[in-house]
Amino acid sequence: MPLNTAEFTIGITVSPQGREIIEKVMEAGPISRNDLTKLMGVSRSTVTKAVVNLCEQGLLVEQEYEESSGGRRPVLVDINPDFGTVIGIDMGITRLNLCVANFRGDILASKQMPITINDVSPERFLDSVNDEVVSLLHEAGATTESVRAIGFGVPAPVDEVTERVASPTKLSGWESFDIREYLRTYYPQATIRIENDVNLMALGEHKIGAGQGHDNLVVIKIGTGIGAGIICNGKIFRGSNGISGSIGHISIDRDGPICYCGNVGCLEKYAAGPAIVERAMAAINKGESDILADMLAAGDGRLTTEDIGMAASQGDPIANAIIVDSAREIGRILAVIVGFFNPSLVVLAGGVSQVGPQFVVAVHRTILEYSLPLSSQHLTVHKSEVTNQAGMAGAVLLALESVFILE
Amino acid sequence: MPLNTAEFTIGITVSPQGREIIEKVMEAGPISRNDLTKLMGVSRSTVTKAVVNLCEQGLLVEQEYEESSGGRRPVLVDINPDFGTVIGIDMGITRLNLCVANFRGDILASKQMPITINDVSPERFLDSVNDEVVSLLHEAGATTESVRAIGFGVPAPVDEVTERVASPTKLSGWESFDIREYLRTYYPQATIRIENDVNLMALGEHKIGAGQGHDNLVVIKIGTGIGAGIICNGKIFRGSNGISGSIGHISIDRDGPICYCGNVGCLEKYAAGPAIVERAMAAINKGESDILADMLAAGDGRLTTEDIGMAASQGDPIANAIIVDSAREIGRILAVIVGFFNPSLVVLAGGVSQVGPQFVVAVHRTILEYSLPLSSQHLTVHKSEVTNQAGMAGAVLLALESVFILE
Questions:
Q1: B230 contacts in A (CB within 8 Å)?
Q2: Is A283 domain-assigned?
Q3: Angle ∠(B390,B375,A391) on CA atoms, nearest 5
Q4: One domain, residues A163 and A261
């Protein structure tokens, strides 16, 4: 956990023992001093001293909790939810999710909105994001001064050291832009982390979604782009350069179309949202699907992946074939990943994953078809049930993990 | 690190602090009590007490070391190499590597021999392996009673809990065979670990081979079969069911030949040793290569992957094409793995990796061709320089890691 590097000089200073106690309380929830002592394998007096210090610092609170058995009410140590406010932001290409959480990570208010990111400069975009944050803080009854930590997810690779957006990305104008530095002008007192959106989704799924209890899991986001987020031994795994999960630009056909990344036949050109819409438009132009043509007309010349999912659910064989073809390409790549990494869970997230049940079924079938039964027999494949919440929840968690600096 | 589970009831009992000291000394080599104290962040007296106990137990020694500067000779703590003997065994389908090491992991004697594993029962095979171990112990000046730990690598998936051979494997008659229980009859006092051979190779490469300094690396063994071993954050990564790295039976062609695993078009059917030999035999039968035909005749009707490598080095275009085709299939799978996992190093090991320089070059080129520059630009691809030592060295390391039981 990157709790303490030169990059995170803004934060809350705690002792090593204090940090360990905070981590344990965050993991376990309200807990007695006794149980903390057992968990940490140190002396009771060490725990007592550290807990008292942290309570004085305002980071922890101790209070009586109801005992279900009706016995003496135990005094439990908990994170002080009012110590500060945490902002979670999950920026997509077409959609923004943001939330305000207390210092225990409970989400107090959240908001989702469609965005068109490439029409304005990063600065103007972030200004308008901040307007939304300020109004959400107000809704949650918190001030901008109370913000202690911000987690910000971007749909792009993120340089592990500078935390700037790396190439290739569909965020034109954002390459090398320093989001952290810009947000710092608004929140100089806050620890700010910029992270790839799918890594945050993986963290969110692990904590609040289908991934609870799965310590080795993979989230595949199939939206405007395609990327994977990895939880390995319970933590985000970023690889040796911080760019693990870059599967959208694996070439699956050397004779395929040229991709914006410069390569040919990338997975995204076959299975991401724009590729699916493009294939549906081609089918409409060839007069192959009346249902899709009607939807295009109803949408004033604009067709979405949701439309294609709806056409499939109405029995349109072309729409169904387009969805299943996309799913099969995802499934073939996943067969390699499942054989190699042996996760217990694959979560399919992003807009395309939500088009209809046949998408998840076709991905799962393809994995079973292309991989060894030994690798896939205990594998669960799920559609994300929290696809719009996972990223911002992960952003809050990462921000909270990063806020402490060792004294 | 699986230092203490119900499965490893045979071992050396140490305190939690004692175990931590042993781990630090194993990692760092000879070290002063002062440096240990700093490294562990505990009090000097705690370290002193634990070191004295471990010395009394015979696990550690303290001795003066030469100071290069000619100053006062420091007293350093080290593992007592004579505390016990460790056996490392790396069993392939056609080759056996074994070694005897001291308790510090230094290899004292080693041996390599060709084997034909499927002609005899597992019991008879292990009896003859043990004969070799006994003679190697003798050569190293050690007794069978001194053996405290054994690491045993098998070319098959290994059930994580029972440590028995799992399917599919080319080890016919070994499915579910309990190697550990059988070896225990010879070495009842020893901690015994059974592990997949490629996982052990990955551990060995990380410690003594090209993988030193690479905390996220992948070893691909291409021999009679194909498998991957993963080092993730410096440790063997086994996945959620202990079968990570099962890439030999990923289907790469639904119209391909039937594999012994029951699926069709498995990677092994295109890129492993037997597939390469089969293609060369077909070329000979069609009269396409005189050089290969001469080698077949010289080999009394038997052709090896080494022969094919030699034919390629003599300029035979057919032999070269067969090698490059195999390498390209490996490279395509690796492009997915590199994009997903973002390792800093890929090591190619096993017989096929050693056929000639064009193999490694073609694998590397294919990775670059099929993957995103962001993922592959900092990637190193190496042929293993220790392909026959890595597995048995990894077996010794795993055995040493597993020998301690917490009191």
A1: 340-341
A2: yes
A3: 110
A4: no
**Amino acid at site B130:** N
Residue A375, pLDDT score:
86
Domain shared by B124 and B263, yes or no: no
Q: Is the dihedral of CA B200, B201, B206, B207 positive or negative?
A: positive
- Give residue B275's pLDDT band: very low, low, confident or very high (50, 70, 90): very high
Q: Which of residues 310-369 of A touch B (CB under 8 A)?
A: 333, 335-337, 339-344, 369
Burial (CB count <10 Å: 0-12, 13-18, 19+), residue A310:
middle
Rounded to an integer, the average pLDDT of B306-321 is 95
Residue B55 lies in a domain: yes
Looking at chain B, which residue has its C-alpha nearest residue A214? B240
pLDDT of residue B5: 43
Chain A hits for B241, CB-CB cut-off 8 Å, are 342, 344, 374-375, 378
What pLDDT was estimated at residue B67? Answer: 64
A226 plus A358 within the same structural domain: yes
Work out the pLDDT band at A2, boundaries 50, 70, 90.
very low
Beta-carbon separation of B344 and A240 below 8 A: yes
Of the ranges A84-93, A196-205, A358-367, B17-26, which one carries the lowest mean pLDDT score?
B17-26
pLDDT tens figures, A130-172: 999 999 999 999 999 999 999 999 998 898 888 998 877 778 8
User: Do A58 and A113 share a domain, yes or no?
Assistant: no
Query: Is residue B170, in this structure, part of any structural domain at all?
Result: yes
The pLDDT of residue A1: 39
B-contacting residues in A 137-196 (Cβ below 8 Å): 157, 166-168
Amino acid (1-letter code) at residue B124: R
B376 touches A: beta carbon within 8 Å: no
Q: Which residue of B250, B255, B337, B379 to mutate against A (max A Cβ within 10 Å)?
A: B250
- The residue among A35, A63, A79 that closes a domain is A79
Tell me which of A6-20, A135-149, A155-169, B252-266 is least confident: A6-20
**ipTM for the complex shown:** 0.90
Full DSSP string of A342-398: --SEEEEESGGGGS-HHHHHHHHHHHHHHS-HHHHTT-EEEE-S-TTTHHHHHHHHH
What residue in A sits closest to B157 (Cα-Cα)?
A374
Residues B331 and B229 in one domain: yes
CATH of the domain at A68: 1.10.10.10
β-bridge partners, B251? B266
Nearest CA among B222, B245, B231 for reference residue B345:
B231
- Burial bucket for residue B10 (CB in 10 Å: 0-12, 13-18, 19+): middle
- Residues A373 and A351 occupy one common structural domain: yes
State whether A155 and A273 are in the same domain: no
Give the percent of chain A with pLDDT over 90.
Answer: 74
CATH number at residue B174: 3.30.420.40
| pLDDT of res. B41 | 75
Instruction: Kindly report the average pLDDT of chain A as a whole number.
Output: 91
**Domain limit, last residue, from B60, B79, B98:** B79
Nearest CA in chain A to B235: A233
Other CB atoms within a 10 A radius of the CB of residue B299 amount to 12
Half-sphere exposure of A189 (CA within 13 A, CB side): 9
Q: How high is the mean pLDDT of chain B?
A: 91
pLDDT digits (tens, 9 = 90+) for A224-249: 899 999 999 999 999 998 899 999 99
A 202-261 residues inside an 8 A Cβ radius of B: 214-216, 228, 230, 232-233, 237-247, 249-251, 254, 261
Q: Which of A157, A214, A216 comes nearest B374 by C-beta?
A: A157
Domain tally, chain B: 3
Q: Which residue segment(s) compose the domain that B17 sits in?
A: 12-79
- Cβ atoms of residues B405 and B13 within 8 Å: yes
Question: Mind listing the pLDDT tens digit for each residue in B316-360?
Answer: 999 999 999 999 999 999 999 999 999 999 999 999 999 999 999
> Does B6 map to a domain?
no
Let me know whether A371 and A226 are in one domain: yes
